[in-house]
Amino acid sequence: MIETVSKQQLKATPWKFPFFTIWTGQAFSLVGSNLVQFALVWWLTETTGSATILAVASIMAILPQVFLGPIAGTLVDRWNRRLVMMVADSMIALAVVVLAVLYALDAVQIWHIYVLMFIRASGGAFHWPAMQASTTLMVPEKHLSRVAGLNQTLFGVANIVAPPLGALLFSILPIQGILAIDVGTAVLAIVPLFFTTIPQPERKEAPEEKPSMLADMREGLRFVWGWRGMMMILIIATLINLLINPGFALLPIMVTDHFGGGALELAWLESAWGIGMILGGITLGVWGGFKRRIVTGLLALTLMGAGVTVLGLTPATAFTLALGAMFFGGFMNPIANGSLFATLQVTVPPEMQGRVFTLAMSGSAAMSPLGLVIAGPVADALGVQIWFLIGGLATVIMGVGSFFVPAIMRIEDEAAEVEVRPYSPHPARAGVTPAVD
Questions:
Q1: CB of 61 closer than 8 Å to CB of 365
Q2: What is the dihedral of CA 124, 129, 135, 136, to 10 degrees?
Q3: Confidence (pTM)
Q4: Rounded to the nearest 10 degrees, how much is the dihedral formed by the CA atoms of 14, 17, 18, 21?
Q5: Distance CA 73, CA 357 (A)
Q6: How would DSSP label each residue in 356-375?
Q7: 405 Rama sector, left if φ>0, alpha if ψ -120 to 50, beta otherwise
Q8: Helical spans, DSSP H, in 79-206
Q9: How far is CA 53 from CA 44, 170, 224, 380, 430, in A?
Q10: Pairing with 385, which of 78, 162, 353, 372 sits 20 to 30 Å away (CA)?
Q11: What is the pLDDT of residue 1?
């Protein structure tokens, strides 16, 4: 019989060592992944110089989030989340090994890069919700906003370290050597999972009443659909991804065509964003935000849009201004993301989080392929900066407008009223069950 741990027992359980053991391994893996991402994107840029090819590569990295997200979230809520992370990381590492061999044999082709990016994104579609949902059950509720800020700081560190290191390694190592580094950091992420127990959410139904996967998916959809404020935020995220993501995906082309730079200038821009993310994440981690997380998130979202707008308006002779705009946008990004995501972690029941998080991820990612399909050819003809201008202005308008939408402003209050049906009849947050290894 599986022992159920009460919320009071969970609070009394030491959490820092097991959580940060896993977190540290994931941190190394994130740096390795960003390193490889930079190297592959720059290889495509140098080899082809085509915005359309970069757009297709970005689409390959997005499609799994759109189509696998709802299925992955349902399975994460049903499966052992520790094993999900182990298998996902292993699958990605194996794909990187195959690509490294192809580079070593001088047999790599553009479509091989597309396949790798698709596989990496497929693994991430399972890994990300498993890690985020596990965080909710490993970290006390009062520390979730700070951990969210810490995660955003980590993303910023990865953005700072990976681009210049990637540019340096790209000049002194064959690309298969850079890929080998990613495999090594993946091992550092997988090994701690063998020795760390991750709590599992308690399923409310009896074993003989266990619903089908399709029923679980419908339950997640009903939960999101019935939460009006969340649906509106999801729509905003979808529009932002449609209008802004193409610009960032094509940033290497903006560096070469608009600013006349190379790998070093691209590294500076990405590092400026990363430095901003570090400082923004630290700010959120120390400050914690306003009492109402939604206010913190929307204000930061509006200011981030302003920074992106400035980037779109920057003339070719003002590269320093572009660095400042990237820094400012990067600073506001973790404050917006961390505040809004911590709201979901606190209000969504643990047994629903895999489904809810992946539905949110799938919805926000769904428009990116469409934007990239349009952005690639248009950027080849008109320049990438138009996408930053349009996306930044739209983000500012949506951020300011959201302050006047009651359903969004009351999301933290209304979240407690959303019922989980039909298999989770108990309100509030569920207890947890230790993972059975």
A1: no
A2: 170
A3: 0.63
A4: 170
A5: 7
A6: HHHHHHHHHHTTHHHHHHHH
A7: beta
A8: 81-104, 110-138, 144-172, 175-195
A9: 8, 20, 35, 11, 46
A10: 162
A11: 34
Q: Report residue 107's pLDDT band, with 50, 70 and 90 as the boundaries.
A: confident
Residue located via tokens 């390694």: 169
> Given this model, what pLDDT does residue 428 score?
33
Highest-scoring range by mean pLDDT, 17-21, 217-221, 331-335: 331-335
Cα angle for residues 140, 144, 147 (degrees, 5° grid): 115
Q: Does domain 18-196+212-418 have CATH number 1.20.1250.20?
A: yes
Q: What is the CA radius of gyration of the chain?
A: 21
And the tokens for 420?
Answer: 């989980």
Q: What is the identity of the amino acid at 127?
A: H
Using DSSP's 3-state secondary structure scheme, residue 281 falls into helix
What span, in angstroms and rounded, lies between the C-alpha atoms of 240 and 367? 9
Q: Do residues 361 and 70 make contact, with C-beta atoms less than 8 angstroms apart?
A: no
Q: What's the token pair of residue 313?
A: 């308006």
For 337, the token pair is 């993301």
- Per-domain residue ranges for the chain? 18-196+212-418
Q: Tell the residue number behind the tokens 């952005």, with chain if given.
A: 375
8 Å CB contact between 335 and 284: yes
* Contact present, 332 and 300 (Cβ < 8 Å): yes
Distance between CA atoms of residues 190 and 436, nearest Å: 18
